[in-house]
């Protein structure tokens, strides 16, 4: 297979959908005096698993198109403005009841609201596929809601290139539904919690041998295992088990590490790296990511490459 994306006459050879939303992060919140406003700092940004993957790809010099599912509201306009501000190519589909929104607070953790999909924009998705004929079609953070599944099917069913699926744990735990969806994908990207949910095993029992059932569905499966590293197996007999990369810095934020892994893996493949090298580089990139704040504060491709082969 020809992995060289740079010779392909496609504006966006990688399409990623559909998770993107405005996000408010609250810092330095303290208990106010009676009758006083709550003191603290607020930062407004854009987030979502698909956005995180796209940002990693863009950081690596690739050309991804973010396909986002939003509503017909002011939050959709805000999302568009934030994406333009970050120079992220995007196609926003007004298919939800409203645009998703998230808030991250120091004491309460993350609160998010994701309205359901009420219509499927087959025409726009089909048009984007036909126009770009991408070599990667990626669906991230897929939930078990039937409308979400139908939306994902639009991007995965017609395979111009390699179809990549990243399902959520509550979807993969539904074995029948997962079997139906996984059949659309060429590559599966999971974390060990998601893998264990399907296999019905403990986290510590997730290993290369245990993951063999996933090859019934897809050509390749990659499972990230937090501090235990990552696993890769494919139908060609490739089996890889790499420890997590530790650069001596304390962990700050693990959120987005899996998205960083996926983005850097695809970026390395885009640049012509063989699968073992792409896998090693993605492991290092995600190891660096967890030592940095924010979900999109990822290393550069060159930084990860230099650490991988230092």
From TrEMBL:
<dbReference type="Pfam" id="PF00294">
    <property type="entry name" value="PfkB"/>
</dbReference>
<keyword id="KW-0418">Kinase</keyword>
<feature type="domain" description="Carbohydrate kinase PfkB">
    <location>
        <begin position="38"/>
        <end position="297"/>
    </location>
</feature>
<keyword id="KW-0808">Transferase</keyword>
<dbReference type="GO" id="GO:0016301">
    <property type="term" value="F:kinase activity"/>
</dbReference>
<dbReference type="InterPro" id="IPR011611">
    <property type="entry name" value="PfkB_dom"/>
</dbReference>
<protein>
    <recommendedName>
        <fullName>Carbohydrate kinase PfkB domain-containing protein</fullName>
    </recommendedName>
</protein>
<dbReference type="InterPro" id="IPR029056">
    <property type="entry name" value="Ribokinase-like"/>
</dbReference>
């Amino acid at each position: 297979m020809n992995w060289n994306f740079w010779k392909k006459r496609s504006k966006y050879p990688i399409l990623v959908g559909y998770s993107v939303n405005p996000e408010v992060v609250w810092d330095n919140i303290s208990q106010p005096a009676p009758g006083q406003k709550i003191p603290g700092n607020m930062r407004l940004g854009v987030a979502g698993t698909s956005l995180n993957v796209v940002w990693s790809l863009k950081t690596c010099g690739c050309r991804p198109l973010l396909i986002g599912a939003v509503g017909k509201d002011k939050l959709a306009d805000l999302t568009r403005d934030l994406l333009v501000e970050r120079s992220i190519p995007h196609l926003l589909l007004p298919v939800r009841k409203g645009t998703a929104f998230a808030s991250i607070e120091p004491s309460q953790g993350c609160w998010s609201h994701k309205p359901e999909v009420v219509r499927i924009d087959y025409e726009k998705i089909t048009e984007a596929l036909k126009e770009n004929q991408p070599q990667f079609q990626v669906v991230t953070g897929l939930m078990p809601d039937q409308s979400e599944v139908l939306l994902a099917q639009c991007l995965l069913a017609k395979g111009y290139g390699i179809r990549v699926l990243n399902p959520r744990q509550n979807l993969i735990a539904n074995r029948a539904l997962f079997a139906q969806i996984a059949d659309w994908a060429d590559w599966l990207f999971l974390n060990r919690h998601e893998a264990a949910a399907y296999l019905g095993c403990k986290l510590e029992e997730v290993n290369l041998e245990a993951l063999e059932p996933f090859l019934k569905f897809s050509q390749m499966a990659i499972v990230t295992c937090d501090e235990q590293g990552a696993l890769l197996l494919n139908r060609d007999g490739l089996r890889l088990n790499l420890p997590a990369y530790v650069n001596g810095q304390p962990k700050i934020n693990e959120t987005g590490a899996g998205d960083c892994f996926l983005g850097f893996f695809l970026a390395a493949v885009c640049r012509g790296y063989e699968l073992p090298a792409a896998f090693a580089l993605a492991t290092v990139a995600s190891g660096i990511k967890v030592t940095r704040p924010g979900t999109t504060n990822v290393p550069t491709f060159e930084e990860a490459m230099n650490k991988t082969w230092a």
